[in-house]
Every structure is written in C-alpha cells, then in structure tokens.
Amino acid sequence: MVMLSGENSSLERPADTNHASGDSKRLLWVWVRYLSKLEADGKRYVRYEVIGENEVAVPTHFFKIVMGLDGAIMEAYILPNEPISSGVSFDSFKTTIEKVERAAGFIFGGKPP
To answer: Taking burial as the number of CB atoms within 10 A of a residue's CB, which of 10, 54, 55, 113 is the most buried?
Structure first.
C-alpha cells in the first residue's frame, strides 16, 4: 500500500500550507475509495490488490478535502493510491467537491461540531 508514503506523503504539505484563505484553522479530511478504471475492452472495472493472510483490500484511490472550521470547502483532491513521480503537480489532482462527494457516497459541508 502506497498511501501517504514516499512521494505521496509530500502531498500533505500543499494541503496543509498552501490553502486559499491563508487561515491556519482548518480540517483536512482524508478517506479511501475503490474507484473504477476504464480497461481495454471499453468497460469499467474496480480492481484492487489484497494483502496479508486476511486478504485486506488495498484502496485504489483516496481523497482529501481541506475545510475551514466554518464548514466552507477550500480544496478537494482525488489521488491514486500508487507512486506519484516527483514532477507531478499536486494541483493536477484537484477536483470539485461534487466529484469527491459522488465518489465518497456522502456530502461534506456544514460547520463541524
């Protein structure tokens, strides 16, 4: 599993320090997903690795959402759970909150408790 290791761990820094508002009070949501991929036969499949004796499923992707304490969504990202070369910009994974919500199966927003 690659999530938050090696090059991917450096992706925490942009979300943590380069957010739009400049406000240091924010939440970083990180969640895993199993997303489909278009294959050569023109169909979409969800394929993932399982590891260990208990065959633990390794997520294909994870998302990150930077949210202000007032509930405002600042940034949203969907990232593959695979090595990412150092030349790839973090912004290339930026997406809309709607796409993350669709992939996650729940809605973000509103003031946290």
So the answer is: 10
